[in-house]
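Revision sheet: structure tokens.
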Amino acid sequence: MADLAVTTNILGFLCANLPRWSRIRGNGLCTEEGLFRCLQRCISSLPAAEMATPGDDIQVKEIDKRASGQAFEVILAAPTPDAKGEFPLSPPKKKDLSLEEIQRKLEAAEERRKSHEAEVLKHLAEKREHEKEVLRKAMEDNNNFSKIAEEKLNQKMEANKENKEALQAAMSEKFKEKDKKLEEVRAKKETKEGCAEASEN
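Predicted:
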């Protein structure tokens, strides 16, 4: 409360001396430094009788004046016991709610709860659906991979079988050629031996 009274008194002092400040020449009154200098000039130009505010709640006394600056002492008056602040000390009491208002608030809270619950369930359902879709796609990819691998294996086995049959046919043909040559050699030998026996007789 004392801080509020001090602020009010300072504002009153500033407003009371505003016409005097507006007559002071110089630039930069809108800046903080310019306003402070203006305040210094006003206070230093006041006589001792005018140093108090209209309510005598604040007094400004000059302490020291030098070429480098000026010092002041601000004296605040003690707050009067009958002074009333603008803000109440205790918060305002809440008005009593009627049964209809309480019921309406409970229904609104129930609606919010149901809405939140529905939102959570919807989110969970979407998450489960996404998981099912991912699992289905993974199984489909796995099945496709297995099918492709099986087809490649069958093709490889078929190629091996064809190669084996071709190799066996080539070897069989080679053996037949060899047997044919052996038969020719044997026939020549027998013919030679038969000719030799005939010439001896």
